[in-house]
Amino acid sequence: MRSALTCVIVVGSVNVDLVATVDHLPSPGETVTGGRFAQHHGGKGGNQAVAAARLGASTSLVGAVGADDHGTGARAALEAEGVDVTELRILPDKATGVALILVDARGENSIAVAGGANTALERGHVRESLERLGTEAGDVVLVGHEIPAVTAIEALRFAKAAGAITVFNPAPATDVGSETLALSDVLTPNEREAAQLVGREDDPETLGPELLARIAGGGHVLITIGSRGAVLVGQDGATVIPAAEVPVVDTVGAGDTLNGALAAGLAAGLPVMEATRRAVVAASLAITRHGAREGMPTARELEAALAARSGGQGVGTPMAPTQTENR
């Protein structure tokens, strides 16, 4: 039975991350030796769901995995984080998605993804899943783009019709149609993705208003700008939200942390600006540890970081957790 609490529903990918840490990222044709290997659970949808759940949001994930060991492990890892996986479909004829990730000594990364089951997530499954989850006004539906474009559109269309807040993370920013942008209450590209969506390179403060004009009825565009933080663009203009200076260990998962934290903040009823400020701090914490999920903060860790950043006075209104911390 559906809880009376507002929820975060993530529609997106689930992968296993195979990570090699090397001194520098190889150029085309170059082999870099001496790396260290690690395996992590990932996929932008799975990561974003974990980020939201760790911050206390009641979180469900709509997606697909294969009927293989990777899929079994992925489901178990998500459940251990408190994510509802009842709508994570198991596809017997597909492999679970795999991401091949290289991370250099500075924490920068290069990623190649074999989508597997993620590419077979169908529109009908997503629509039925959102119906079964009881999607309603006040919920936040966070949709990624490592799934078929038509499926992402269906998720946004259904969520919009249900009165939910729609957040669209256009990663990768290919085959993103005008309807997809129009259905987004909050659009969250990084700098490169924003340039791809507009069709030219420019400052985020310039690209943001152009993207905002494509959102039906207004909304917001949140462009992440790496170590500098993020730019939030709304009807009142653009605001740069700086990130704290922290030791960078691994940037993999920073954007997913920000998106999950943003969704959790919006589901808790925070204004977009306040939810964004908290999300930027959460992302700053994430890059201080190895792994896409390992560095994602809990509600307690985020509150401590916010208090330290504001000299002990806190930053805005603390989010009210909707479920017990998972870590």
Describe the structure.
With 327 residues, the chain is an alpha/beta fold. The protein has a domain at 8-13 and 45-68 and 82-88 and 123-309: Ribokinase (UDP-N-acetylmuramoyl-L-alanine:D-glutamate ligase, 3-Layer(aba) Sandwich). 33% of the residues lie in helices and 21% in strands. The chain has ten helices and 13 strands. The strands form two sheets. The chain has a nine-stranded mixed beta sheet, sandwiched between helices. The protein has a four-stranded mixed beta sheet with strand order 3-2-6-7. Strand 6 and strand 7 (109-114) form a beta hairpin. Helix 3 (123-132) packs parallel to helix 4 (149-161) and helix 6 (191-198) crosses helix 7. The two termini are 25 Å apart.
Sum up the structure in keywords.
327 residues; alpha/beta; UDP-N-acetylmuramoyl-L-alanine:D-glutamate ligase; nine-stranded mixed beta sheet; four-stranded mixed beta sheet
Structure described in brief:
The protein is α/β, with parallel strands linked by helices and 327 residues long. The protein is built from 10 helices and 13 strands.
